[in-house]
Amino acid sequence: MRFAVVRSSATGCEPSCPEWISAEGAIEAGTPAQLKRILKKLGRGKLPIIVNSPGGNVDAALQLGRIIRKNKLDIAVGTTKFSDCWPGMKDCRANDGKGAAYFGIASDGGAMCNSACPLMLAGGVGRVVGGWAHLGVHQITTTHFRTKRQYRTTYRVVRGKKYKVTTETVTQDNIGYKTYEMSKALEKRLSAYLREMGVGRGVLDVMKATPASDIRQIALDDMLTMKLVTSRDSLDILTQAGICRRSPAPANCREIPANAKPAKPAVMAVQRAVPSPPSAVRSAPVDNSWQMRFVLVRSSDPKCGLDCPEWIAAQGTITPDTQKIFRQLLDTVGGRRLPLIVSSPGGDFLSALAIGRLIRDRKLDVAIARTDFTGCKPQDKGCAPTNGFYPGVVTDAGAGCDAACPIMLAGGVRRFVGPHVPVSVQSLAFAERIRSYLAEMSVRQDLFPPMPLNRFDYKRNRLPLEPGTMLTMGLTTGPESANHLVGPTVCKTEPRPQNCPAASALKVDAQFPLKP
């Protein structure tokens, strides 16, 4: 997990803007110490924490929760999209003289707080999980180690008596095994912690009832009943630029004069942080700076060896320009039918309609999942693809398809969504045009809910779709996930899929293999 103090970069925000602590990545044993250090640097300033995490170390999560409660901080589930400079970027001086080291926008779209992360969340005084974020729990996996040592002892005999001189360890074996059920001692400890934080036992009951191999997403109404969240609000109440115009302004608002001095970065990183899920914004209004990116990817999963599948990764918000960018990419691909792996919070639905028709015209398959790039990433400066493709793997974690995104999905010849990938629809304008499009794609025309009386009440009219519902509606063509199209073994099936490289390409890869 990486912590960074961020100031809002929203237009018209200055001179008084909200600030927060961005916390993204896996929770590890050293994470609490890093948070303590960054809070010590802040002094008396009380900044809310915006967390995006797949979980991690339970003991560390409990410590984080207690640190947050001791400092009387609020917490929300969300991601931070940095502008200009971001944590880990070397020698960036773009924000010198602006009074802050990092600027960005916070969003709950596509954010997650899973596994041990809800224990950290429980520590907040105010706790919010917006309608676009996902919170999930499961059984806790405990790893036990049994140490087996062998010693060598040397003795000396002096005047007929035996004395021990040295003892040294010859071998030491750490034999580990895992348990997947919560012990009585751990259950008692977690129950006491949740009670201490004012959270109901319902959270613990759901954890116990969900296998460690699964993840149970908790609905907002249930989180309210369990007292895991303190309101139906989203992180906007903590990070939206307009909050600093209130009187009095919230504690996390800070005014910076125009002649501010350069700021020193306030960032702490724990080693071995996992990649965070892609940032996302709400479908209305659209922020063009977060627009959808299309990237050609070849699997870097070691299980596929050299014979690895390829696909088009599409991640981000759909903007009016997205259809043009997608068409240009398809022109570079030529006649190859590469599947489209999509993760998007939605966006411009007219562009989504055009993309959906283009997908169907090219007879492409579509699946909802997230692409994690390994090693060289498209957004890294100086990073060039190998033979036109970036190395990566697909994962359901952190993926989603909301608002206008299902319109893109409907265009696929084959359409797959993993059982734990959240998909939702909401009322959209031009309902007649959407119904006509869905009829073209053999999807039920009542997929999208009718427009409410208050046309700007987007969140309340958001409708999550269950896997069975998507199959019944025709939005998906089967229960399979993205692995059915781009998994490590697909190139070993017959007939050979079109997204597997030709034999000539394999010979080139054998001479110049992709770096892991």
Keywords:
14 helices; 516 residues; single chain; alpha/beta; nine-stranded mixed sheet; globular; 24% helix; seven-stranded mixed sheet
Write up what this structure looks like.
With 516 residues, the chain is α/β, with parallel strands linked by helices. It is 24% helix and 24% strand. It contains 14 helices and 23 strands. It has helices at residues 31-42, 58-70, 117-121, 184-196, 202-209, 220-226, 236-239, 322-333, 349-361, 405-410, 431-440, 467-473, 483-486, 503-511; strands at 2-8, 16-24, 49-52, 75-77, 79-83, 103-107, 112-114, 127-128, 134-137, 142-158, 161-179, 216-217, 253-255, 267-269, 293-299, 310-315, 340-343, 366-368, 370-373, 390-395, 415-417, 423-425, 463-465. The strands form 5 sheets. Strands 1, 2, 3, 4, 5, 6, 8, 13 and 14 form a 9-stranded mixed sheet that branches. α1 links the parallel β2 (16-24) and β3 (49-52). α1 (31-42) runs parallel beside α2 and α8 (322-333) runs parallel beside α9 (349-361). The longest helix has 13 residues, at 58-70. It is globular, with a radius of gyration of 26 Å. It starts with a strand and ends in a 5-residue tail after the last helix.
The gyration radius over C-alpha positions equals: 26 Å
Q: Helix share of residues?
A: 10-25%
Structural class: alpha/beta
Task: Work out the helix count.
Answer: 14
Name the beta content range.
Answer: 15-25%
User: What average pLDDT do the residues reach?
Assistant: 81
- Contiguous runs where pLDDT drops below 50 for at least 5 residues: 174-178, 268-289, 453-460, 504-516
**Beta strands, count:** 23
Envelope shape:
globular
Largest sheet: 9 strands, mixed
First-to-last CA distance: 23 Å
